[in-house]
């Protein structure tokens, strides 16, 4: 029996802690009738509902890849693995010789091979880890995947329909008819269709990956689909965890500058103006190089490759957070200056109420819409930033799976003849879907939560 030792990394603790914080925030939203009505207004949009489900699917994959454990490998050495590696273990273990195109049965380029008769042939060698072409059918496998997906998603939808019918104190058949005809406040019909599409794609990829390399293989023969899925964790962590670093600085300094004014405002403005004058890429590159020198001089700090790659990712998150708080800080300063002049804040000052109490009761609740809008809008920018930084060599560790590293490796592959296009296409596709969903959802959040747009709703 295999031995599993749960060994969380630093970023694992951070992402699961943030998920717990989001769960607590959802509990608080549920208790407030006004805030709950605002968030329901966000999900009344069909695009926002579909985008939220897509973002949730990316988050689930990232969380699966954030449950790390050590297990005894085939070589007798303890290896780091994640729950996602367990789901796609058949992709993590296989290794072809070199490139192969999507759904191909042979290698992409020809090799010199000596046959049994001693003759030298220039042929495309067959792949080792694929199904027998005579027994494999894309159509039959796809129909099987759709069948399994329909059963699993149908069960989830029926359970959700039953739960919602109990919440609305309606009979199951009547509530189902309302959903089918689109007569519910939230677009559950769109949500169910999105769930069915995502589950169908997931099951299809999983079933097909047992028989062929759905998105091909790279230069060293690794499955591109597996690399793309593993890269989701890096993109999501960069987009989410940077918020954890950026928010406290932006909130504290922005509100302090707007409320205290005077020399406090002057110092804070000087700090973020100076920081903005430094090119972000140069600052990040210098910080990453310093971190690399420190790790090289102290190899005993992190003995495993996974730990070194994780600490570099954590350091990149910290650097991005320390360089991306200035925009939100400026917005919060301006909003706090406006709020500090309204009657109830002036009255609170006149009665001698503590400044911290004024911030907690009057300022912070009235700037949260700006915080939420800025956080959601910045998410896609941070995901793209990781890809750009990894492409120029100052991003995550080269051994870590990321879309930026895939694009960086694909740049030389695009110059080959024949051209190897599927690595770049896969990284672009997964990143495009994530960024598009985040942008569509952020547009809806901005429309609903921004007070200037209330009249248009």
List keywords for this structure.
457 residues, mainly alpha, 3-stranded antiparallel β-sheet, two-stranded antiparallel ribbon, 17 helices, 68% helix, globular
Task: Give a structural overview.
With 457 residues, the chain is mainly α. The protein has helices at 10-31, 33-42, 46-64, 83-87, 89-93, 138-167, 172-180, 188-208, 224-260, 262-277, 280-297, 305-323, 326-339, 343-350, 355-391, 403-413, 422-449; strands spanning 4-6, 68-72, 78-82, 111-114, 120-123. 31% of the residues are buried.
Brief overview:
With about 450 residues, the chain is mainly alpha-helical. About 70% of the residues lie in helices and about 5% in strands.
Query: Outline, from the CA principal axes?
Result: globular
Q: What is the strand tally?
A: 5
H/I helix tally: 17
Largest sheet: 3 strands, antiparallel
How many angstroms separate the termini?
59 Å
The helix fraction, in percent, is 55-70%
Would you identify the regions where 5 or more consecutive residues have pLDDT less than 50?
none
The succession of helices and strands, N to C, reads EHHHEEHHEEHHHHHHHHHHHH
Oligomer type: single chain
**Strand residues, percent:** under 5%
Global structural class: mainly alpha
Mean pLDDT: 81
**Radius of gyration over C-alpha positions, nearest whole angstrom:** 26 Å
Strand arrangement in the largest pleated sheet = 1-2-3
Task: Give a topology summary.
Elements: E1 4-6, H1 10-31, H2 33-42, H3 46-64, E2 68-72, E3 78-82, H4 83-87, H5 89-93, E4 111-114, E5 120-123, H6 138-167, H7 172-180, H8 188-208, H9 224-260, H10 262-277, H11 280-297, H12 305-323, H13 326-339, H14 343-350, H15 355-391, H16 403-413, H17 422-449
Antiparallel strand pairs: 1-2, 2-3, 4-5
């Amino acid at each position: 029996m295999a031995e599993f030792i749960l060994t969380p990394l630093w970023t694992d603790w951070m992402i699961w802690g943030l998920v717990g914080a989001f769960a607590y925030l959802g509990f608080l939203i549920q208790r407030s009738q006004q805030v709950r009505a605002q968030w329901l207004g966000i999900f009344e949009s069909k695009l926002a509902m579909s985008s939220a489900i897509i973002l949730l699917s990316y988050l689930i994959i990232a969380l699966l890849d954030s449950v790390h454990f050590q297990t005894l490998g085939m070589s007798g050495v303890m290896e780091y693995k994640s729950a996602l590696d367990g789901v796609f273990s058949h992709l993590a273990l296989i290794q072809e010789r070199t490139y192969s195109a999507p759904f191909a049965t042979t290698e992409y380029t020809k090799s010199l091979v000596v046959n049994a008769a001693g003759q030298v042939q220039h042929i495309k060698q067959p792949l080792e880890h694929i199904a027998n072409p005579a027994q494999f059918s894309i159509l039959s496998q796809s129909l099987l995947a759709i069948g399994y997906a329909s059963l699993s998603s149908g069960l989830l939808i029926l359970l959700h329909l039953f739960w919602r019918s109990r919440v609305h104190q309606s009979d199951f058949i009547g509530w189902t008819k309302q959903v089918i005809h689109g007569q519910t406040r939230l677009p559950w019909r769109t949500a169910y269709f999105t769930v069915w599409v995502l589950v169908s794609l997931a099951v299809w990829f999983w079933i097909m990956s047992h028989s062929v390399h759905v998105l091909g293989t790279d230069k060293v023969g690794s499955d591109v689909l597996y690399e793309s899925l593993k890269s989701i964790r890096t993109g999501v962590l960069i987009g989410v965890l940077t918020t954890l670093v950026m928010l406290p600085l932006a909130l504290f300094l922005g509100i302090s500058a707007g409320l205290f004014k005077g020399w406090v405002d002057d110092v804070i403005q000087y700090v973020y103006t100076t920081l903005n004058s430094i090119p972000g890429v140069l600052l990040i590159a210098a910080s990453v190089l310093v971190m690399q020198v420190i790790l090289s001089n102290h190899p005993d700090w992190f003995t495993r490759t996974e730990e070194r790659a994780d600490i570099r990712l954590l350091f990149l998150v910290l650097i991005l957070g320390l360089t991306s708080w200035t925009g939100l800080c400026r917005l919060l300063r301006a909003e706090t200056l406006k709020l500090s002049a309204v009657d109830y804040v002036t009255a609170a000052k006149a009665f001698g109420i503590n400044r911290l109490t004024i911030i907690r009761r009057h300022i912070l609740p009235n700037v949260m819409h700006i915080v939420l809008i800025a956080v959601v809008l910045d998410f896609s920018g941070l995901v793209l930033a990781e890809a750009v930084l990894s492409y120029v060599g100052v991003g995550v560790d080269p051994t870590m799976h990321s879309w930026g590293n895939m694009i960086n490796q694909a740049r030389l592959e695009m110059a080959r003849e024949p051209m190897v296009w599927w690595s770049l296409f896969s990284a672009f596709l997964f990143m495009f879907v994530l960024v598009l969903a985040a942008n569509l959802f952020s547009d809806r959040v901005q429309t609903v939560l921004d007070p200037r747009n209330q009249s248009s709703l």
